[in-house]
Amino acid sequence: MHRLPRQVQQTAGAAYEAPIGAGKAESLPPRPIHHQISRSRQATQGAGSRIVSTLLTLVPRGGLRLPADVHVVYEDVRKSYDGSTWVVHGLDLEVHRGEFLTLLGPSGSGKTTCLMMLAGFEAATEGAIRIDGESVQDLPPDKRGIGVVFQNYALFPHMTVAGNLAFPLEVRGMAPAERAERVERVLRLVRLEGMEARRPAQLSGGQQQRVAIARALVFEPELVLMDEPLGALDRRLREEMQYEIRRIQRELGVTVVYVTHDQQEAMVMSDRVAVFNEGHIEQIDPPEVLYEEPERAFVARFIGENNLLHGTVLGLRDGFCDVDVGGIAMRAACIAPLKVGEPTTLAIRPERVGVGDSPDRYANDFEATVDDITFLGDHLRVNLSIGEIKDFVAKIPNVTGQGGVLEGDRVRLGWAALNCRALEAVAEVPSPQ
Known about the structure:
By secondary structure, the protein is of the alpha+beta class.
C-alpha cells in the first residue's frame, strides 16, 4: 500500500497558486506577454461556425521573434470525398513564415487531409489555399516547391544515400558539381556524414528517417510538410528525432507543417499547435497556452489530463461562476459564454489539486476519501471521492522520506478557482486515442 508524503499533502499546488486568504477572493490576471500569440475565435457563418486564427505576437520558446508575414493561408477550405460528408469544413488558417505548426488530433479528425491538400495530393472541394499569396489550386505537387516527409520514408532501396539525396536535384536539372555540394551540405545538417555509400537496408530506422528528412530539404524549399514521420520508430528514437527535427528547422528557418496524433511530439517541437476534431480546428495556440488555458472541453481532454465535471451554473460575477456539481458548489473561471441555469463542464488539472489539511488555502475546498494511490516514479497518482463524485484524480510530486496517508483516509482537497475552467457543456468528451 502506497503512502502519500505528508509534506506533499501540505504543499501540493503551492508552486502554482499563492494562498487565497480567508476571503478566498481571486481576480483574473492579465495574459502573459509570451502567451499573447495566436488566439482562436469562433465566428458564426450560416448554420455552422468556423475557427479563425489571428496573429498578435509570435515569440517561440527559443526566444527568437518569428516574422509575422503569412506564408500559407487556408480560406474557408472544405473537403468531401463522397459529396455528402465533410472531412474538413470551414477551415480558416494562417501559417506564418519560419514557424513550426503542428496539426494535432485523433484519427479521422481531418489533419492529414489538410496536409495533403496543401501538398497537392488532394484537391479542396471548396475554398482556397494560398502559398505566398498565390493560389495553388491548379498547381501539381511537383510545381509547389514543397518538401514532404512521410511516415514510410519512401526511400529508393536500390540507390545509395547519396543517390537518394541527389535524385530530386537531378530531376530539377542541377549540375553534378552543385548536386554533390548540396548532398554533402545536407548530410552534415542531419549528421549522417560518412553514410553516403550505404543503402537504406544498411541503415537503422532513425538513420533512414534522417535521410528522408534530408531528401525533403536538399533542394532548399521554404516550406516542408511532415506526415507522422516518427510513427514507425521506437519510443527512444522518436524522442531523439523530435529534438533533431526541431534543431534542423530552427537552423534553416524553414516553415514546417507537421501532422501527428501524439501530443508529446506536438508539445516538444511546435511554436503553435492546431487541435483538430471532426474536420475543424477546436483551438490553435502555443503548447503552453493549450495546456494551461484550454478553451474547449475536447482540448481539455485531449491535451494532458483533466478532471471533467458536469454541473449547472448558479451565479456569475467578475469572470467567475459558481457551479453546482452533484449538490456540491464549486467556483470556476468562466471561459465559455455561460448564463445562470445553463449546464457546463468544469476542467481541473490533477497537478493543480492540493491534497492535505489546509482548509483555508483554496476557493474550492472539500473533504475527500483516498480510494487509490499509484506510484509513477516522479509523482503519485491519487484517486479520490468527493461525496458522490468518483474517480477524481490528483497528481502529487514524489517527495521521499516524509510521512503520509493511507488508502481509505479522509483528507482535505482543494484547488484555486483560476485552475478550474468552466467550458461548454458536453455529454461525453471523446477519448484522445
